[in-house]
Amino acid sequence: MCLHKGQAKATYGTGCFVLYNTGDIRVNSSRGLLTTVAYQLGSMNPPSYALEGSVAVAGAALGWLKDNIEILDNAKDSQNLAEKATDNGSVIFVPAFSGLYAPYWRQDARGVICGITEDTNSNHIVKAALEAVCYQVRDILDAMNEDCGFPLHLLKVDGGMTSNALVMQTQADLIGIDVIKADFTESTALGAALVAYWGVDGTNQGVPIPMTSGFTYQPRISEDERDMRYKQWKMAVDRSLGWDQN
């Protein structure tokens, strides 16, 4: 239901995909984003465009922790384990397993875990994997704000990872705006069905469909803390670059 210019949504699954509605304007990104058609409500109406940014590794990082590193029995356990991580150190995990997508587009990047101390345990690694998704979404949103010239006021979200309340709260904290969770997790499929319906039945184009939001997450940290944490993320990203020389 991001049917107005300036609205954006993020879908959290194996990867994460962010779309920003730019209305009837095709914004040519200078910051590594893709310009795409968002939708067209019937052949008689003009198309609406969007900027798109993709995160290669979101939920897939939890699969890696489960299958490769074996510190996670089930992805559903990730919130409980992450919440057990003490605050005596800041661990940053950049899951660049095969490079970084938007806005970096660096195929030579590889995964790094920074900030490890003698107090670091598996819970810190799980927490860092969840936070990495939120940092990468901020990367994309910052690029979108710069390309479009005006900032977002809220972000709508859907997908499997939105059931993780810690991820959603962390996302709101790191971007500094409200995050509105869809009541129906698979809202991407529902949205495609609605647009198809409006495209076929011209008499109902743009008719409001009652939609409920599952929950709104509001930022809880200060701007200073937000900037400090994001600075650490950017430092870790810098350390992930240039590893693959082939």
TrEMBL record:
Claim: Ribosomal protein is one of the keywords in the record: no
A matching Pfam family: FGGY_C
Stored PROSITE patterns: FGGY_KINASES_2
Gene source species: Iphiclides podalirius
Record's keyword terms, sorted: Kinase, Transferase
InterPro entries referenced in this protein's UniProt entry, alphabetically: ATPase_NBD (IPR043129), Carb_kinase_FGGY_CS (IPR018483), FGGY_C (IPR018485)
Lineage of origin: Eukaryota, Metazoa, Ecdysozoa, Arthropoda, Hexapoda
Domain (Carbohydrate kinase FGGY C-terminal) ranges: 9-198
Kinase found in the keyword field: yes
Name of this chain's protein: Carbohydrate kinase FGGY C-terminal domain-containing protein
Family under the similarity heading: Belongs to the FGGY kinase family.
